[in-house]
């Protein structure tokens, strides 16, 4: 019996590692034929997911790269233009496109493997908060526990920063809370802004989605923030959920394993 259970245990460990977005090795198919079948099915799934992720990243990197060259050319041609009004308008468009390409490129880079390190979540959040103008924003950070975990520090910081940046755009009060939970830890970020209608909770995680597209165009926001955030959190084996905050705005609840 032990001989049959060992490969199953291995499967569960490797599946969990892979589910956290970490690279996991192929499973060796040993044991009873049902267990061999399961291991083979897992290996096939792992190969397909890896191929899919690589294709997606390669495509985005390729498109971003290809678009940069004509954009640089357009910038040069622009300087020769006589019509000042048209020049200004085109300049704005080109700058906006450049900013978008930059964010796609950093989106792709975020998928390049960053080493796993020990993380003190309290400190990571304090590092983000300390750059916020305390005259403009009321920020309350409630540390119910000290949370130590492991993960990719830059990515996690980026994920949390994206949510906080959104809140700073729409509100002037932020409430951040971290605590231990049964299966890991919980991070809650709430604001007193206009929030997001229930029916759009899933939409805002889609790349390029905005509730206010005209604003996005003006400010060069690409609508990738939350989609990047969710990718990062899921790759750490966690999940993010949106709801209404008692402060009136958006409540983002992030659950992470520790
Ligand atoms: N705290 C919030 N309050 C109200 N609306 C929000 C909040 N956070 C996000 N949204 C809405 O969700 C949309 C998607 O957010 P997301 O961060 O993915 O993109 P973005 O902020 O528009 O662009 P980017 O983050 O790439 O600069 C936003 O455009 C906004 O309409
Ligand atoms: Mg954003």
Q: Say which molecules are bound, naming each kind only once.
A: adenosine-5'-triphosphate, magnesium ion
Total tally of structural domains: 2
Please list the strands of the largest sheet in the order they lie side by side: 2-4-5-7-6
Overall structural class, as computed from helix and strand content, comes to alpha+beta
| Order of helix and strand elements from N to C terminus | HHHEHEEHEEHHEE
Unreliable sequence segments: none
Mean pLDDT: 88
Brief summary of the model shown:
With 258 residues, the chain is α+β, with helices and mostly antiparallel strands.
Would you kindly provide a written description of the structure presented here, covering whatever features stand out?
It contains 7 helices and 7 strands; from the N terminus they run H-H-H-E-H-E-E-H-E-E-H-H-E-E. It has 258 residues and is an alpha+beta fold. The chain has 2 domains: 2-109, Signal transduction histidine kinase, dimerisation/phosphotransfer (DHp) domain (Helix Hairpins), CATH 1.10.287; 117-256, Heat Shock Protein 90 (2-Layer Sandwich), CATH 3.30.565.10. Strand 4 and strand 5 form a beta hairpin. The protein is globular, with a radius of gyration of 22 Å. The protein binds adenosine-5'-triphosphate and magnesium ion.
């Amino acid at each position: 019996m032990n001989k049959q259970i060992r490969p199953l245990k291995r499967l569960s460990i490797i599946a969990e590692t892979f589910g956290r977005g970490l690279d996991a090795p192929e499973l060796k198919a040993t044991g009873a034929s049902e267990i061999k079948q399961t291991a083979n099915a897992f290996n096939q799934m792992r190969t397909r997911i890896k191929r899919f992720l690589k294709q997606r990243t390669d495509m985005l990197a390729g498109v971003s790269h290809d678009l940069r060259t004509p954009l640089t050319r357009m910038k040069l041609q622009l300087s020769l233009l006589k019509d000042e009004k048209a020049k200004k308008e085109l300049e704005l468009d080109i700058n906006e496109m450049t900013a978008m390409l930059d964010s796609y490129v950093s989106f792709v880079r975020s998928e390049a493997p960053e080493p796993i390190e020990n993380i003190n979540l309290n400190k990571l959040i304090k590092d983000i908060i300390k750059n916020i103008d305390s005259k403009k924003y009321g920020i309350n950070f409630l540390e119910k526990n000290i949370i130590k975990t492991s993960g990719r520090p830059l990515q996690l910081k980026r994920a949390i920063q994206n949510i906080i940046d959104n809140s700073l755009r729409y509100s002037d009060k932020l409430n951040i809370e971290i605590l231990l939970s049964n299966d890991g830890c919980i991070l809650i970020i709430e604001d007193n802004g206009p929030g997001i209608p229930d029916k759009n909770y899933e939409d805002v995680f889609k790349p390029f989605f905005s509730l206010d597209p005209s604003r996005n165009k003006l400010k060069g926001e690409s609508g990738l923030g939350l989609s990047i955030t969710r990718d990062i959190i899921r790759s750490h084996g966690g999940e993010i959920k949106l709801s209404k905050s008692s402060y009136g705005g958006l409540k983002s609840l992030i659950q992470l394993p520790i």
